[in-house]
């Protein structure tokens, strides 16, 4: 008797071998793959020589294959399959792009509403990175005057952006 016909309980055999593999740390998918390979090894061997205990043969081959797979992962590292690879897309979503453009538009509109001197002082500080003393010297005013203009600009921006 060759092949499947010699097993009265083939699903039971597969279940027992798969369970044994999973108890030894194999994932369900890997256990199924090893079981498949062990069954093919049994079929190949059965064609050239008689296997006295087919169930023991399949179990032993499957367990040996699991050991080999484990040893290979220790020496070569885990093998990453392309379908297992998670690719992270760092680009912003379409919604984030739209919201950012709307926010920038509101800030530009608010800056356009400011008087020229307050806007120039605010941008010199925030965009150009100038220190308050440098701005004061550039505009011919005191440091406290620069602080007043910047606080005025911040208040106008806060009021303009409220509820957005």
TrEMBL record:
<keyword id="KW-0804">Transcription</keyword>
<dbReference type="Pfam" id="PF08281">
    <property type="entry name" value="Sigma70_r4_2"/>
</dbReference>
<protein>
    <submittedName>
        <fullName>RNA polymerase sigma factor</fullName>
    </submittedName>
</protein>
<dbReference type="InterPro" id="IPR013249">
    <property type="entry name" value="RNA_pol_sigma70_r4_t2"/>
</dbReference>
<feature type="domain" description="RNA polymerase sigma-70 region 2">
    <location>
        <begin position="16"/>
        <end position="71"/>
    </location>
</feature>
<dbReference type="InterPro" id="IPR036388">
    <property type="entry name" value="WH-like_DNA-bd_sf"/>
</dbReference>
<dbReference type="InterPro" id="IPR007627">
    <property type="entry name" value="RNA_pol_sigma70_r2"/>
</dbReference>
<dbReference type="InterPro" id="IPR014284">
    <property type="entry name" value="RNA_pol_sigma-70_dom"/>
</dbReference>
<dbReference type="InterPro" id="IPR013324">
    <property type="entry name" value="RNA_pol_sigma_r3/r4-like"/>
</dbReference>
<keyword id="KW-0731">Sigma factor</keyword>
<dbReference type="InterPro" id="IPR013325">
    <property type="entry name" value="RNA_pol_sigma_r2"/>
</dbReference>
<dbReference type="Pfam" id="PF04542">
    <property type="entry name" value="Sigma70_r2"/>
</dbReference>
<keyword id="KW-0805">Transcription regulation</keyword>
<dbReference type="InterPro" id="IPR039425">
    <property type="entry name" value="RNA_pol_sigma-70-like"/>
</dbReference>
<feature type="domain" description="RNA polymerase sigma factor 70 region 4 type 2">
    <location>
        <begin position="106"/>
        <end position="157"/>
    </location>
</feature>
<comment type="similarity">
    <text>Belongs to the sigma-70 factor family. ECF subfamily.</text>
</comment>
